Amino acid sequence: MLLLQCIVCCALLAIVILPVQYRDPLSMVMSYPPQVIRRVEALPQYQGKIRQCEKAHIGRKIVGIVVLVAVFATVAYLSGCRSFGAAFRHVFILLFAVNVFDLVVLDWGVFCHSKKLRISGTEDMDEAYRDRLFHLRGAALGTALNLVVALAAGGIVGLVG
To answer: What is the pLDDT of residues 45-58, one digit of tens each?
Structure first.
C-alpha cells in the first residue's frame, strides 16, 4: 500500500508541476539556480516580475505546507496509522520518495536537459541549469521541510488516533 501511495504521489507531483513550468517557466523562477535568477533580474523584459514571482512563490510554499500536513495526516490515518510514530514514519517515507523522484527524475532528468524550460534570455546558460549540486541542496532542504510536515501530520494523527 505504501509503495502504491509513493507512486501516486510522484505522479501527482509531475502532473501538477510540469504543465505549469512548461507553460510559463518564469512562474517558477524562484526555484531556478541563482545564476539564472540573477540573469533574469538583469534582463529588461523581466523588470519587476521577479518580485511578483517571489511573493507568489512564498505564498504557494506556505499554503502548500499547510495543505500537505492536512492531506498527508489524512492519508496516514486512512492507511491505518493511529499513533504519532506510525503516522510520522508513513508520511516521511511518502515525502522522501517524492523528494527523491523530484530530484532524480524532474530536476536532474527533465529540468537539467529540457530546452523548453529555459527562460527566454537565459538559453546560453546550460551549465547553470545543469548544476546538479544546486538541485541536491534543494533536495536536502526539501528533506528538512518534509521532516516538519511529517512531524505535524504525525502530531495530528496522534491527537486524533
So the answer is: 988 777 777 777 78
Residue 62 parent element (H or E): helix 49-78
DSSP states along 75-122:
HHHHTT--SHHHHHHHHHHHHHHHHHHIIIIIIIIIITT-GGGSPTT-
CA–CA separation, 30 and 104 (whole Å): 19
User: What cell numbers appear for 92 in the block?
Assistant: 516521511
The grid coordinates listed for 119 are 527562460
pTM of the predicted structure, to 2 decimals: 0.91
CA 4 to chain centre: 20
* pLDDT tens string 15-43: 999 999 999 998 888 899 999 999 998 99
